[in-house]
Amino acid sequence: MIEFDRVGFRYQAAPVLNNITLAVREGEFMGLVGPNGGGKSTLLKLIMGLITPDTGNIRVFGTSPKKARARLGYVPQFARFPSDFPITVEETVLLGRLRAGRIWQRYNAQDRAIAAKVMTETGISEFAQRPIDQLSGGQLQRVLIARALASEPELLLLDEPTASVDAHQEKSVFDLFRELNKRMSIIVISHDIGFITDYVDRVACLNKELLCHETQAITPDVIEQMYGDHVHVIHHHSHAL
Ligand SMILES: Nc1ncnc2c1ncn2[C@@H]1O[C@H](COP(=O)(O)OP(=O)(O)OP(=O)(O)O)[C@@H](O)[C@H]1O
Q1: Which of 7, 97, 106, 238 is the most buried (most CB within 10 A)?
Q2: What confidence tens digit (pLDDT) does each residue in 202-235 have?
Q3: pTM: predicted TM-score of the whole model, two decimal places
Q4: What is the domain range of residue 29?
């Protein structure tokens, strides 16, 4: 579903990603970890075709990332909304139904039905008519997940979706991802390696480079190694790299 072939990228002078080769299979639930500035968000931007590699090649669903973008759902790391922007939860979720060329169309009954379904799924139906600036960080994060789900993506990309939630909420959000993974592939960036290993099939660790690691468990040695200058992928179940 995603193939990186010797991908390199730099914003300015310093390289951010070096020689990344990675294959993600359909149905996978992959965790992406690594030190701050290790290039995790950059990797997601490359998958979405928002930036293009300087070297190497990326295919998403067998085509270019830009062409595949409509099949992806994305939940950004930090969402900022102007506090005087009076948009409700439901309206925010409906934005996920907008596709290129549809901006000026009204939402139809199917759009509203899908928005209702994903709001139920993410546990935000009770806030549907509330302005989004009156939500807690955790509630807003669920709204953004619902907005991404409203486009009915085949692959969901999440950049630290539980950064602003407590441990109980983190578990319930990842339980939701586990359910969603039955119908879509998921790549999630997290800082909490110990936690995500209970959920994901594989953990990829990125620190400018990516290294694959064939092991069943993440040991302190592995973690130490991962946060060195390289990147490791740890297999938990049957998915092969
Ligand atoms: N638009 C940009 N222009 C220039 N440099 C950038 C830009 N975006 C990111 N960088 C730099 O690229 C490097 C990788 O950033 P990236 O956001 O991909 O890391 P990350 O692993 O997601 O980090 P974090 O865990 O802190 O979110 C960092 O050194 C960052 O400063």
Answers
A1: 7
A2: 888 888 888 554 334 556 665 666 665 444 555 5
A3: 0.87
A4: 2-235
